[in-house]
Amino acid sequence: MENMLPHSMIRGLITGYTRMATDRIACGWEPTLLTFMFNQLSGSPKNVEQQMQETIEAVYAKVLRWCFRKPRNVPVTAMPLWICSPDYPVYKHHKQNFRDIALNDGRHVHAIALMPPSTRMRTTLDTHFDHEQIRYTGRDRPLWCIDAWPIQDNLPFVVDYGVKGIKTPRVGVDAMFILPRTHSEMEGRRAEKAYLCDLSD
Questions:
Q1: Pair 31, 151: CB distance under 8 Å
Q2: Euclidean distance between CA atoms 88 and 104, whole angstroms
Q3: Model pTM?
């Protein structure tokens, strides 16, 4: 597959992502493993991929509004860092949830989410999604659920798990994306425009 890199380069990427997370954790950032599960999306596989990415970008933009009163004024380096990678279920001997393997051919997205300290969000990210799930998910929305688990130990293993899709031809490195984008990129994205304007109240 043309989007597959040599194994050594993939290992280098994963090591780099782990270092990005480690450096931020040392400065007080909180790491969380997110899994985004979707309702059935229509269109070609490429279109489904785009819908999933735009949906996660919109979720990220909403989280920004919980973190900062005026996201446009916040340096990109001070914003939450989400390392996002699509994935597919791996065959297991025990029974799997039918929804997990049937909808969208089982495609879902993991994110290694790193949240900066001293924001307006007064809870951890996993608690936020637990309490505010209804704001992001539902039968009439693209997202079915967001699972959030705090990363408390074995960070290299969790990062490797979160981005393991890049090791497979079905996903590859081209499907990965990292948030935030630059301010100009975010303002140009349809999914995020509504959230990046300054709050008037």
A1: yes
A2: 10
A3: 0.86
Tokens 């990363």, located at residue? 151
The residues pairing with 105 across neighbouring beta strands, listed in sequence order, are none
Q: How far apart (Å, rounded) are the C-alpha atoms in residues 102 and 29?
A: 36
Is residue 23 assigned to a domain? Answer: yes
User: Does 52 map to a domain?
Assistant: yes
What's the number of domains the chain is made of? 1
**What CA–CA distance (Å, rounded) separates 90 from 129?**
25
pLDDT in tens, 24-47: 999 999 999 999 999 999 999 999
In-domain check, residue 176: yes
Over the stretch 91-138, which tens digit does the pLDDT of each residue have? 554 455 555 557 899 999 999 999 999 899 999 999 999 999 999 999
| Structure-token pair, residue 115 | 């949240």
Alpha-helical regions (H) of the chain: 7-25, 45-67, 98-102, 125-132, 155-162, 183-188, 193-196
CB atoms within 10 A of CB 49: 19
- Parent domain of 149: 7-196
The separation between the first and the last C-alpha atoms of the chain, rounded to the nearest angstrom, is 50
- Nearest-angstrom CA–CA distance, 156 and 175: 21
Has residue 96 been placed in a domain? Answer: yes
Contacting residues for 21 by C-beta, under 8 A, at least 6 apart: 31, 81, 83, 112, 114, 155, 159
Q: Determine contact, residues 128/62, Cβ cutoff 8 Å.
A: no
Residues 6+ apart with CB under 8 A from 5: 13, 166, 173
